[in-house]
Structures are given as structure tokens and as C-alpha cells.
Amino acid sequence: MGKRQFLDELRRCLKGKIDDGELESNISYYSSYIDSQVAEGRTEEEVLSELGSPRLIAKTIIQTYNMKDDPIRRQFGRRAYEEADEEKDYDEGSEGRGFSYKIHGIPALICIVLVVLIAVSVILRIIVILLPLIVLVAVVFLIMRLVNR
């Protein structure tokens, strides 16, 4: 897919869902972004690959546009967004937010708990090793104070 096809697909997905000014603003932004990245030496294919699917970008733009200046939509928009995701099939590699999304968080939580337990264990071992030395220094200090009086 080239820049022209990318922008045409983005325009098609946005048409009728946001006002024309906002549509042209977004098309102009992505066109300028692609041009600036190509001017910096990247290939058009690299830039477009990094941007991802124009359908998913359009979906994000539409959601953001619909939530502008509407506190009710801002409050309930996330739930409606997730429900719409379950109904529509965006097969360009979008991640699901269902059960499998929640499972991915469990290994991270386990890792965090293990790191905390290891840190506490190391700290306690250091204290146990240094405790006799601390007691010895305290006793010597007390004896020296008593002798100096």
C-alpha cells in the first residue's frame, strides 16, 4: 500500500463520520507526517507499516471526535467503545480486550510479586548478617562512653 492508497482508505473510513474540516485536517496531518518521514530518509513502506491500518486510525479519530466537548460521552464512551469492538471485526491485528487480555496481566503480576519477595529476602539477609556487627559496635560504643566518664 502506498501513501495515496493509505490516505484514500483513511478518507473513505472517515467520510460522513466526522465533519469535513476535521476530515481534511487529519488527511493533511497524515500526508505531512509521511512526507516528513520520507524526507528524513525513511521509505514510504516503513512509515506506513509503522502507522498501521488506516481503518484502525480512522476508528480512533472517530472515537476522539465523538467524545469532544461531551462529558456524558466521555464518561460512558469507553464502555461503548469496547462493546462496539466486540461486535465489529477489525482483523488488521487489533488486540482483543476480553478474557485473553486479562490473562496476559497475570504473569506480569506474578513477576512483580516475585521481585518484591526477592528484594525483601535480600534486605532481611543483609540485616541478619549485619546485626551482630551492629550490636558489637553498639556495645563497644557504650563501654567507651562508660570508660570516658
Describe the structure.
It is a single chain. The protein has helices spanning 3-14, 20-39, 44-51, 54-67, 71-87, 99-148. The chain has 149 residues and is an all-alpha fold. Helix 1 packs antiparallel against helix 2 and helix 1 (3-14) packs parallel to helix 4 (54-67). The model is unreliable at 87-96 (pLDDT under 50).
Quick rundown:
This protein is mostly helical and 149 residues long. The protein is built from six helices and no strands. The N and C termini lie far apart (89 Å).
| Overall residue-averaged pLDDT value | 81
Relative strand content:
under 5%
How many helical stretches?
Answer: 6
Terminal CA distance: 89 Å
Instruction: Tell me roughly what share of residues is in helical segments.
Output: over 70%
* Tally of strands: 0
Global outline: rod-shaped
Quaternary structure type: single chain
Order of helices and strands: HHHHHH
Radius of gyration: 30 Å
Structural class: mainly alpha
Residue ranges: pLDDT <50 for 5 or more in a row?
A: 87-96
Largest sheet: none
Task: Draw up the topology in text.
Elements: H1 3-14, H2 20-39, H3 44-51, H4 54-67, H5 71-87, H6 99-148
Task: Based on the model shown, name its key terms.
149 residues, mainly alpha, 6 helices, 81% helix, rod-shaped
